[in-house]
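Researcher: Good morning. I'm working through a list of sequences from a screen, and I'd like to move beyond sequence-only analysis. For each chain I'm collecting a predicted structure so we can compare shapes side by side. This is the next one on the list. No need for commentary yet; just the structure.
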Amino acid sequence: MSSSDVTIQEGGQARLGGGLDVGASNFWEEGGQLTCALTFTSPYRTERVRQGQVLEQSGRRLEVVRIQSAGGGKGQVVVRELAPQAPGGP
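Model: Good morning. Structure tokens for this chain:
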């Protein structure tokens, strides 16, 4: 796990700084893979995500590192902020 990884428990939220908060909810399996909904502020948006997915929000890139079941029947998601993409990069 990287030092830039942030773990969010189902029903919880994390402040990533710069006015960006992210919450996690609605964990369930789709196509044999655990997914969850991430809700972002600034601007408000909700998206269902899978492990390995990279999202852009407010000019920032976030990777969904892991989605897993945690204790007590709740889910847990780990997100990582990636370095900005170079202009013209993949």
